[in-house]
Amino acid sequence: MAGPVISAEEIKRLAPPEEFRASPIVEGSKGLGWLTDRLSAFAEAKTPIWWWVAFLPAVFCAAVVFPICLFYQVFTGVGVWGNNHPVMWGLDIVNFIWWVGVAHAGTLISALLFLTKQGWRTTIGRMAEAMTVFSVAMAGLYPAIHVGRAWFDWFMFPIPNSNGLWPQFRSPLMWDVFAVNTYLVVSTLFWFMGMIPDFAVLRDRSKTRLRKAIFSALAMGWTGSARHWHNYEKAYTVFAGLCTLLVFTVSSIVGLDFCTAQIAGWHATIFPLYFVIGAVFCGFGMMLVLLISLRKLCHLEDIITKSHIDKVAKLTLVSGLVIAYIYLMEFFIAWYSGDPYERWVFGHRLFGHTYCVMGWILIGVNVVMTQLLWIKKVRSNLVLLFIIGVLINIGMWTERFVIVVGSLYQDFLPANWGKYLPTRWDIGLYIGTLGAFFTLYLLFVKFLPMIAISEVKGAMPEADPHHPSGGALKEAHHE
Amino acid sequence: MSAIFPKWTNWLPLVLALVAALAGGAVTAGVAVYVTPKYYRVGYQPVQPVPFSHKVHAGQLGLDCRYCHSNVDKSWVANIPSASTCMNCHNQVLKDDPRLAIVRESATNNTPIPWVQIHIVPDYVYFNHSVHVNRGISCVECHGRVDQMDTVRQAKSLSMSFCLDCHRDPAAHIRPVDKVTDLGWQWDSDPAKAAKMQEINGTKFVHDWKVESLQSCSACHR
C-alpha cells in the first residue's frame, strides 16, 4: 500500500512535545536479552546484606511472636484481647479490614490495568499481586480466630452436620466467608499462573541441578510454544476479569457486615463503596512503600521508573479524593439525618474525649496530607512519597479503628458505654502478621521472579515484529 | 542441562488430584458415618446396679411411666424414682430377692442407688420434659420402645438435628395427650390410614394447643 511519504524531519515536527509523549516503560533498554539478564538478576545473584537485615527481624516476628500470640489466644480464649462489652469488635476486625484493604490495590493495579492495557503495569504488577496474596492470607486469619473457638470454624461453611444447622445465607458475614476464600484462591492462581513463563526463564538459566529441578516443577512443562501462549493469554484475561470483580465484591461485603448492623456510624448505605475505595487507597499506600524501597534496594531504577511511581501516586491521589468525599458525606448525612445518635457518634469522632485523636489523624493524613500529591515535585520526591505511603497505611488503620471502635463504644444507651484498649496480645498478633507478611514478601523477592519478565518484554518496542531491532533478529538475543 | 523430569511426570498432577479426591472422599465418608451421635450414642446400654426390667414393669405389668417417673409432666427433669417407690410393691413382692438387695439397702439407709445415666444432653442444652409431655409428645419419640427393653439402651441419637427434625415439623409427631405414655399406641392398625390421621390431627393439635415448637437458638441454649 503506497501512502504519502513523510520525511524524518516531518515526523519530528509533527510529534507531540516532550512532556506529552509517553515515557518509555524501561529506561535505557539495550534489547530483550539485556532485559532478561537484568530482570532475573536479583533472584540469581548472591543475597545482599540488606535482605538479611530485613529478613531476620521479620522472621522473628513470624516464627516467634506470631505463634505465641496465636496459640495463647486460641487456647485461652478471646478474653485475652481487649474486646469486651460494648466493643465486641476490636483490633481483630480492624486488622482484618486493613489487610483486606492492602490486598485490594495489588489486584487493582495488576488486573484492572491489565484489562485497560496499561503497559507500565507490567513492571510493577507482579509485586502488587504478591502483596495481594500475602495480605489476603493475613486477613483470612483474623475471622478464623476471632470467633473464639477456632475448632468450630467449619460451622461457617455449608457442611451437612448432626446439629441440623446450616449457615445463614442472608447474612453478609456468611458472604464474607465465601468472598475472602474466593479472593484468596483466585488471586493466588492469578499470581502463580502469571509466573509460569518466568519460572521457565529461570529454569532455562539455572546453573545448579537443584535450582533447575525446582523451577522445572514450578514451570509445569512450559515450553513457550504458540499453543501454550494462546491458552495462557486467554486464561490470564479471564483471571484478570475475575480479580477485578472480586476487588469490588470482597470489600463491598466487608462493608455490608457493618451496615446491616443498626449501630449509628455503621448503618449507612455508603459503606460498600466506602470500604472498596478505602481498601484501594490503603493498598496504594502500601504499594508506594514496597515499590520505592525495592526499587532502591534491588537497583531497579531503570525498570520501575519515576514515571511509573508518579502514576501510582496519581492513583493514590484519586482514591484519596474519593475517600475525602466519602468522609464529607458521612458527616453531612449524620447532620442532615437529624438522628441524635448519628450526630452523637460523628460529633464524638472529632470532638469526643477518648478517641478523638484517632479522628484527627484520619482527617490529617487521609484528607489533608494526600493533597500534597497534587504537586509534581512531591510525586517525584521518592523519600517524601515513601513517608506518605507509610502515613497512608497508618491513617487507614486509624480509619478502621475509628469506624469499628468509635461507633461501638458509645451506643444507644449511656449505661452500656465503655472503652476499648488493645492488650499486648492484640498488638502482638498484629506485629506477628506484619512479620509473616514481610517474611513471605522477602522470600518472594529473593527467590521468585519479582518482575514479570515475559510481560515487560511484551510491552517493549522490540516486541513489535516490525521494530528494527526486534522480532527474530540476531542481535536482539543474548550477547 | 537436559530436561530433569521424565515425560511420565506429566501425569503427576492428575494422579495427585485423583489421590487427593479419593482420600478426601474416604475421610468425608468416614466422618459422616462414624463421627455422628447416630453412630456413637445409639445403642449405649450400660450394666445397671439393679437388673431392673422395663419390659416386665412397663410392658407386661402395664405400669404407667409416670408411676415411677412421677414428675415428668410437672418438671423439666424426668426424675429417677427413689427406692421407696420400688418398695411400695417390693415390700410384698420378691421381698427377699437378692437382686433387690441394693434397693432395700437404699430404702433403709437413705442412700442413692448408683444408676448409670444413659440419656444425656450437654449442659448447654435446656430440655424441659413437662412442656413436651403435656403437649402430646410421647416418651417413645426420644426414648424408643422402653417397654420392650429388659435393660434400657439409647434408641435415638438425641443430636441437635434429632431435636430440630421434630421442632421443624411437630405435626408429624404429636399425639393425644392421654396417649403419651402408651408407647405402642397408633392412630390405626393400617399404616396408611394412621399416617393420614396423623397428618390431619397433628396439624389440628399444633394449632389448637398453640404448639410453638421454637427454633431460635435461645430456646434450648439459654
Structure write-up:
The complex is a heterodimer of chains A (479) and B (222). With 479 residues, chain A is mostly helical. Chain A is 67% helix and 0% strand. Chain A has helices at residues 8-14, 32-44, 49-76, 91-115, 121-146, 172-205, 209-219, 226-259, 271-297, 306-337, 340-351, 356-368, 376-379, 382-408, 424-447, 453-458. Chain A starts with 7 loop residues before the first helix and ends in a 21-residue tail after the last helix. In chain A, 41% of the residues are buried. The mean pLDDT of chain A is 89. Chain B has a domain at 73-79 and 119-220. Helices cover 42% and strands 0% of the residues of chain B. Chain B has eleven helices and no strands. The radius of gyration of chain B is 25 Å and the shape is extended. The model of chain B has no long low-confidence stretch (mean pLDDT 92). Classes of the chains: A mainly alpha (479), B mainly alpha (222). Chains A and B meet through helix 7 of A and helix 9 of B.
Strand percentage of chain B lies at under 5%
In angstroms, what separates the terminal alpha carbons of chain A? 37 Å
Q: What is the CATH architecture annotation of chain A?
A: Up-down Bundle
Along the chain, the helix and strand elements of chain B come as HHHHHHHHHHH
The beta-strand count of chain A equals: 0
Uncertain stretches of chain A: none
Q: What separation lies between the terminal Cα atoms of chain B?
A: 70 Å
Rg value of chain A: 25 Å
Class by helix and strand content of chain B?
mainly alpha
Shape of chain B: extended
Please state the average pLDDT score of chain B: 92
Q: From the helix content, strand content and strand pairing of chain A, which structural class follows? A: mainly alpha
**Parts with pLDDT < 50 across at least 5 consecutive residues of chain B:** none
Share of helix of chain B, binned: 40-55%
Give the overall shape of chain A, derived from the CA principal axes.
Answer: globular
Number of structural domains of chain A? 1
What is the averaged pLDDT score of chain A?
89
- The CATH topology of chain A is given as Formate dehydrogenase/DMSO reductase fold
